[in-house]
Amino acid sequence: MAEQSFDVIVIGAGPAGYVAAIRCAQLGLKTACIDRWRDDAGKERLGGTCLNVGCIPSKALLESSELYEHASKHLQTHGVRCGGVELDLGDMMARKDRLVNHLTQGIQGLFKANQVTWFQGHGQLKGERQVGFTAHDGQEETLSAPHIILAPGSAPVELGSAPFDGESIVDSTGALAFDQVPGRLGIIGAGVIGLELGSVWRRLGSEVVMLEAQDRFLSFCDEQVAGESLKIFGKQGLDIRLSTRVTSARVDRDAGGVTVVYEDGEGEHEEHFDRLVVCVGRRPCTDGLVNGPVELAMDERGTIHVDEYCQTTVPGVYAVGDAVRGPMLAHKGSEEGVMVAERIAGMETTVNYDTIPNVIYTLPEIAWVGRTEQDLKKQGIPYATGVFPFVASGRARAMEDTTGFVKLLAHAETDRLLGAHIISSRASELIAECAIAIEFGASSEDLARTVFAHPTLSEAVHEAALATLGHPLHIPPKGKRG
Q1: Residue 192 among known ligand-binding residues
Q2: Which family does it belong to (predicted)?
Q3: What pLDDT score does 454 carry?
């Protein structure tokens, strides 16, 4: 078979890879995208981990479980009586699967519309401007292109003390496909993924115990937000145990379930769970990515070394998404994919890593962008803080959802907005306006003088901006900035 040539070859069709491929094609570049993802039925699917077993299905279950809990416990507050609310887990899972199927077909349609050639199988970087492709049926082919984009994604980290068995001890993928609600669910890791999965199953009826090795909850978040969220999740029923180290997990084949042994400051403890989910991070899927005389620099974790423009140590080869430095976020990978595509086309595009928003999709949601207060203290940057609680928001009260607050951080001398941190039921939406403000170098006064619709949750951002200046309108001021 003659070697096929392209302008760009992308390996991986997750949010970083498929977006890069589409943008390359939009810019007139002959583009191929190789992806090996297949579902449990053996069907090829685009979208990678995020769409198939990550971001989208988890948000589908978060939404469904939130509605179930709301109907079961909270609608009567609004004068709505729902008798006999029942959970049909099978239907809930089927809805999730339909959503995933619809979106993966959507990406397939976008590939067709943009004339991206989709190769279904495994891709490897072989040498200068060459990629080896192995189809699912074993057929091999060599492709060539002057530009190659690596977007292999990531996979869950497995613990030696709690190895996956695919049934009793599972990763995040397994936790999205339980066929029944566990009576008692153990989760190792109380980070973003662990909290989201724990929230789903707690709402559906599980007793959830979370074992977290760190002594500080959500250490990557603003301390005030982390402290408040720990209290909220505790009241909701999540049993979060910090400073714990799991030493072993044993599957009981006769009685069923898993026995977990862990250590904390008080010694060794043993807990029994119906299911155990391990959520201790993710690692780049770079094993087997290179096959040939290619000096692609990686660290010991398999993270590919890149510069600020995602160029690797190999000329003409770029890497984006979870396989490179920075947060493992779908939107971060997508923007890197766009940047690389446009730079290949001769544009001077960059990514501002300081304005990438982060979200934890619990209830309330936690979202932030920019600097944390502890960062500013550590760096000796003078700052002013403005906090507005949703208990003072008319819209939040109408929604019977006044949990949380908006916190803004501005430079004490220039008033430039440095960070925004939100804990509320719509934090994932509210954080966007803060990210835009920081991206455009806005000041807290800029936000304070912007007219926000009333009554809305977004008014809390406006009031927090006023609070940084010392004169909020709907809460008592704590003193003007000096």
Answers
A1: yes
A2: Belongs to the class-I pyridine nucleotide-disulfide oxidoreductase family.
A3: 97
Q: For residue 143, give its domain range.
A: 4-155+283-351
Q: Do residues 312 and 461 both lie within one domain?
A: no
> Positive or negative, the Cα torsion across 114, 119, 124, 127?
negative
Q: Is residue 384 domain-shared with residue 460, that is, in the same domain?
A: yes
Which one of 335, 351, 367 terminates a domain?
351
Are residues 112 and 251 both part of a single domain? no
Query: Residue 477 falls within a domain, yes or no?
Result: no
CA 192 to chain centre: 7
Q: Give the integer Cα–Cα distance in Å for 482 and 479.
A: 9
Domain shared by 33 and 131, yes or no: yes
330 is in an annotated binding site: yes
DSSP 415-454: -BEEEEEEEETTHHHHHHHHHHHHHTT-BHHHHHTS---S
Count of structural domains, the chain: 3
> DSSP class of residue 115?
T
The owner of tokens 């969220």 is 229
Same domain, 267 and 300: no
Could you tell me the CA-to-CA distances from 312 to 95, 149, 315, 324, 325 in Å, in that order? Answer: 40, 10, 7, 10, 12
State residue 220's pLDDT score: 95
**419 marked as part of a ligand binding site:** no
Distance CA 71, CA 73 (A): 6
**Within this chain, do residues 72 and 91 fall inside the same structural domain, yes or no?**
yes
SS3 308: coil
pLDDT of residue 36: 96
Contact 278, 194 (CB under 8 A): no
Do 107 and 223 belong to one domain?
A: no
**Are both 383 and 237 inside the same structural domain?**
no
Domain boundary among 321, 351, 381: 351
Amino acid in the structure at residue 110: L
Catalytic entry in 305, 454, 471, 474: 454
pLDDT of residue 482: 39
Rg of the chain over CA atoms, in angstroms?
A: 24
- Tens of pLDDT, residue by residue over 350-362, are 999 999 999 999 9
- For 442, list phi and psi in degrees, rounded to 5: -70, 160
Asked if 217 and 188 count as a contact pair (C-beta separation under 8 A), the reply is: no
Q: Which residues does the chain have with pLDDT short of 50?
A: 482
pLDDT at 1: 57
